[in-house]
Design brief:
Layout: H1 3-6, E1 9-10, E2 13-14, E3 33-37, H2 50-53, H3 70-78, E4 84-85, H4 93-97, E5 100-101, H5 120-137, H6 140-148, E6 151-155, H7 158-166, H8 168-177, H9 179-199, E7 204-208, H10 217-225, H11 238-261, E8 266-270, H12 272-281, E9 290-294, E10 320-322, H13 330-342, E11 350-351, H14 355-360
Pfam family, one: Lipase_GDSL
Family: Belongs to the 'GDSL' lipolytic enzyme family.
Keywords: Hydrolase, Lipid degradation, Lipid metabolism
Length: 363
């Protein structure tokens, strides 16, 4: 993809400006994909001490590979190589130019102290340091054009809401303030993150919404366990989903305003929530049989203990919506990736344009 850039790098310095930084493999206007986020973009490969933490009681939260997740599936559609994790790289220029995944399982938008997993702000600092490395290794104009022609994906909020509904002690006051109050805090920080990326010359940015957490096996089990369930016909906890919907609504609204604020950039919001609810409401249309139980887990609907051994997995994961306590199966992510890319089989997942249109849009 980036042989045009790499061929002019000699002993870590750029000797001349390449004619283009676009992906010459397929003619797109994308140089690389950089990903920031939580467990929606990372399987634990980029979380320090994850094997000891067993994040959310799952050792294998997404079938053991980031390749099953939405950003990697989109990278494949764009024609980009598999994205290396930030902590899995060797620090070479070639790996940085190939794109990086800064995302970390259990990362949150809200910085919850020095002992919390990588927050949004920590990942933004890592992005800034990475782009500074590019400026040092390449000449400034080349680094600028490379950054502008790359896509930055942000997927946060899932872990903030899981903490909110599963940790009664530290967040009970936040719940009392209501859904809009909490969503405003998170959406404002996400908007600030997009502005930060714009300031470091990112021009193509994708923001992913939060999936329907109220339908996840663990949240449904917790609600039933506490006898506080307000379930719908799909056994989804409605008040939890209502909070997620409010966040997605506000983030989508802010992305629209940012597009007006920065006309030389293009921000896309992908509504993962509505995409998954389409599947959950009519699973048979998409080849699914089980919308309630985890493919890998123990207890009622596999929701009590997460995926701690691959021997626990169901026989046919592709018929399940949920892989473990909180994460969808690769089959679901593949459908979402198709919809994000082309608008099919689920229309209007991403707006104002599809990811395919974003990729081939010249700014």
């Amino acid at each position: 993809m980036l042989m045009g850039i790499l061929s002019i790098v000699h002993h870590g310095k750029c000797t001349e400006t390449p004619p283009a930084t676009a992906n010459v493999k397929n003619g797109s206007h994308v140089s690389a994909l950089y990903v920031l986020g939580d467990s929606s973009v990372d399987c634990g490969n980029n979380t320090l001490f994850y094997p000891l933490l067993h994040g959310r009681l799952s050792s294998y939260p997404c079938n053991g590979s980031d390749a099953t997740l939405l950003p990697q599936l989109l990278a494949e559609k764009i024609g980009l190589p598999s994205i290396r994790s930030f902590y899995g790289q060797n620090g070479s220029l070639e790996e940085v130019l190939g794109g990086l995944n800064f995302g970390s399982t259990q990362a949150t938008i809200m910085n919850q102290g020095s002992y919390s997993p990588q927050s949004l702000n920590q990942q933004l600092r890592q992005v800034s340091e990475t782009l500074q490395l590019l400026q040092l290794q390449l000449n400034q104009d080349t680094a600028l054009q490379f950054t502008k022609s790359s896509i930055f994906v942000l997927s946060f909020g899932k872990e903030d809401y899981i903490d909110l509904f599963l940790d009664n002690n530290s967040t009970s006051q936040m719940i009392q303030h209501g859904a809009q109050y909490f969503a405003n805090i998170l959406a404002n920080q996400m908007a600030n993150a997009v502005r930060y990326l714009y300031d470091v010359n990112a021009r193509k940015i994708i923001c992913l919404g939060i999936l329907p957490l109220g339908c996840t096996p663990r949240i449904a089990w917790e609600s039933n366990h506490r006898s506080a369930g307000d379930y719908n016909r799909n056994s989804c906890v409605e008040h939890v989903n209502d909070w997620v919907i409010e966040y997605n609504r506000l983030l989508n609204e802010k992305i629209g305003k940012l597009n007006k604020e920065f006309p030389d950039a293009l921000m896309v919001f992908c509504d993962v929530y509505n995409g998954m609810m389409e599947i959950i409401n009519e699973p048979w249309l998409y080849g699914f049989e089980d919308v309630k139980s985890a493919c890998c887990g123990l207890g009622l609907n596999g929701a009590v203990i997460g995926c701690i051994s691959m021997d626990m997995t169901c026989h046919q994961a592709s018929t399940h919506v949920w892989w473990d306590l909180f994460n969808p199966t690769q089959a679901v992510n593949a459908i979402l990736a198709d919809a994000a890319w082309s608008g099919q089989p689920i229309p209007d997942l991403c707006h104002p344009i599809t990811i395919h249109e974003l990729v081939y849009k010249k700014l």
